[in-house]
Structures are given as C-alpha cells and as structure tokens.
C-alpha cells in the first residue's frame, strides 16, 4: 500500500480504538521498551501525545525516562521550514498546545540535534524494512537527518507491521526498532 492509503487506513483504525484500549496499548508499549538495549545513553527525545488524534500515550515512557534520571528532550514545530527546535524537559518547562493542537514547550534550554542519542518516533504505520508513515509533513525526517548517524530511532505503534510501504523516497529515514504492544521489531 502507498503512504496516502496507509495514512487513511491507520487514522481510521486509531479512531475506532477506545481510550481504554489506547491506554492499555500505551502501557504495554512502554513496558516493551524496557527490554531495548538503549538505557546506557544520556539524551532521549520523545514526542508529546496529541490525545485528540488518539496517539499513543507517551506519559508512560516519560515516567520511565524520568525514573532512570535521563535527559528528556521535547520539540517545538517550526512550520515555516518543517523543522523541530528541541528543548530539555525540566521542572520549569511550560507546555502549551500550538495552533495545530500539538503540546509543545514554550521555551527553555535548547538541545542541539547532534546531542540526542535516542529518538522515540511517532508514526501511523511501519513496514518490515523499517520504513514509516507519519502525517506527511516531513518534520521527523528533517530532524533525524540532522541527528548523528548512530542516533537510535525507535518507532512506537499501536498496530502491527505492514509487509511493505510503497512510495518511499530518498529522504525517508528508516527506524532501528519499532515497538508495538506485543512485539519489538528490529531493522
């Protein structure tokens, strides 16, 4: 299936999930992340969930990161050039929803892309080759292209793997892992 068809399919599948299902799946995904070989690093980037779009609830992973005393990095979208500005999440970080409904830091301590060791990547679908389908704006592909080559890229998916995503282009950045409620895929 191509990206537009997969976007439509998985948005509809997410819409059909109850809030309890999303919460249960999100907790299962967070528990799965504990068995990934990633916990010796320092800077972990994670997205804040858009609950209205029934995204995975990343609060559980945030709690794990905080409990392991990791540096947590969150983003603010720059729509003019589809880039992300990354900020260290601290006790003083003010989070506000953008005009697009995205929870974002208002400001804070900026973190360079090259400092980030692990990125938890939002997605709608992924395939057996580590390709992903996001919302189609390219924010994460642009951001990941600026990270150091050894940055670990981990997709978080409420659903299982697709066989193949058609229409992959050269700028698409592949995942290293994708975590679902039942399985960890390694690419």
TrEMBL record:
**Which cofactor(s) does the record list?**
Mg(2+)
UniProt family annotation: Belongs to the 5-formyltetrahydrofolate cyclo-ligase family.
List the GO molecular function terms: 5-formyltetrahydrofolate cyclo-ligase activity
What is the enzyme's main class?
A: ligase
Instruction: Return the protein name.
Output: 5-formyltetrahydrofolate cyclo-ligase
Organism this protein belongs to: Hwangdonia seohaensis
Lineage of producing organism = Bacteria, Pseudomonadati, Bacteroidota, Flavobacteriia, Flavobacteriales
| Catalytic activity from the UniProt record | (6S)-5-formyl-5,6,7,8-tetrahydrofolate + ATP = (6R)-5,10-methenyltetrahydrofolate + ADP + phosphate
What EC number(s) does the entry state? 6.3.3.2
Q: Name one Pfam family in it.
A: 5-FTHF_cyc-lig
Query: Any idea which UniProt keywords this protein has?
Result: ATP-binding, Ligase, Magnesium, Metal-binding, Nucleotide-binding
């Amino acid at each position: 299936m191509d990206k537009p068809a997969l976007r439509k399919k998985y948005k509809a599948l997410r819409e059909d999930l109850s809030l309890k299902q999303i919460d249960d799946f999100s907790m299962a995904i967070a528990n799965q992340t504990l068995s990934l070989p990633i916990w010796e690093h320092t800077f972990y980037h994670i997205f804040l969930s858009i609950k209205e779009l029934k995204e995975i609830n990343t609060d559980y992973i945030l709690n794990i990161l905080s409990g392991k005393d990791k540096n947590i990095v969150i983003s603010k979208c720059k729509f003019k050039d589809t880039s992300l500005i990354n900020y260290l999440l601290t006790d003083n970080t003010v989070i506000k929803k953008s005009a697009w409904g995205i929870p974002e830091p208002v400001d804070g301590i900026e973190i360079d892309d090259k400092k980030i060791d692990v990125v938890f990547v939002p997605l709608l679908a992924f395939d057996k080759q580590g390709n992903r389908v996001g919302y189609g704006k390219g924010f994460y592909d642009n951001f990941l292209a600026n990270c150091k080559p050894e940055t670990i890229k981990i997709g978080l998916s409420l659903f299982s793997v697709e066989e193949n995503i058609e229409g992959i282009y050269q700028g698409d950045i592949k995942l290293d892992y994708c975590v679902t409620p039942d399985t960890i895929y390694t690419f």
